[in-house]
Amino acid sequence: MRRLPVFVVLLAMLMLAAPVTAIADDGIHADTTVLAAEADEPLGPNPAERTAEDNPARELAGYEDQDLPFTWGAAWIMAFAGLVGLVLLGGLYQLLVRGPAQKSNS
User: Fold this and answer.
1) Phi, psi at residue 68, to the nearest 5°?
2) CA 30 to CA 24: how far, in whole Å?
């Protein structure tokens, strides 16, 4: 029962502390903040389409079509390894735990 009042007090302290720190941050940095949108210069060229033939980043970033993604093959390998692991763990459980327990009971 004592945990609830402590939790309520901590929650109230956090709720009171958040606006105070927000006000303090606004007072300190309000005159030094400069937004990039306020600049008169353009921010840069428009990006080229990902699939455009003249986009030099198409080959550098690996946007070309791949025959078979690595993750597809890795998923099958991991599924097979997981299935083999489950079968091995089940067999070891049968041999080391369940079998001796059944022999000792009979």
Assistant:
1) -140, 120
2) 10
Q: What is the DSSP string of 13-37?
A: HHHHHHHHHHHHHHHHHTTT---GG
Give residues with Cβ within 8 angstroms of 57, minimum separation 6.
Answer: 48, 63
> Which tokens belong to 12?
């109230």
One-character DSSP codes across 29-96:
HTTT---GGGSSS---PPPPPTT-TT-THHHHTT-S--SS-HHHHHHHHHHHHHHHHHHHHHHHHIII
Q: Does pLDDT of 13 surpass 70?
A: yes
Digit-coded pLDDT (tens) for 62-95: 656 666 677 888 999 999 999 999 999 999 999 9
- pTM metric for this prediction: 0.36
